[in-house]
Amino acid sequence: MSVEKVNQYKESKKNRKQEIEKQKKKAATSRIVTWVVIIAVLVALAVGLVITVVNQVKASASTDTQPYAYSSYELMDYADIEGTASTEE
């Protein structure tokens, strides 16, 4: 049993540099992927916020300027309910 452990230790010692390099690369890759995901989420939130604000501004602008406001909208009195028709006819 002791010989097996010694042989295993020797093998791990031979490959130690490669294993450390692999671990460093894996850690760097996971850091990069994490930052990319965080940035993508933040950009998506910012775009959603901008779109919402733009839509709200457009909606409020369209309700402020109604083409037929009450003060400028006139109905013609075809039935002469108000008695304003001329009697010359």
General description of the model:
By secondary structure, the protein is mainly alpha-helical. It is 70% helix and 0% strand. The relative contact order is 0.04. It has a domain at 2-54. It has helices at 2-14, 16-64. The model has no long low-confidence stretch (mean pLDDT 82). It has 2 helices and no strands. The radius of gyration is 39 Å and the shape is rod-shaped.
List the uncertain runs: none
> What is the terminal-to-terminal distance?
126 Å
Helix content: 55-70%
Main sheet: strands, sense, barrel: none
Structure class: mainly alpha
Provide the β-strand percentage band: under 5%
Rg, nearest Å = 39 Å
Shape designation: rod-shaped
Pattern of helices and strands: HH
What is the count of helical runs? Answer: 2
Q: So what's the oligomer here?
A: single chain
Overall mean pLDDT stands at 82
Give the strand tally: 0
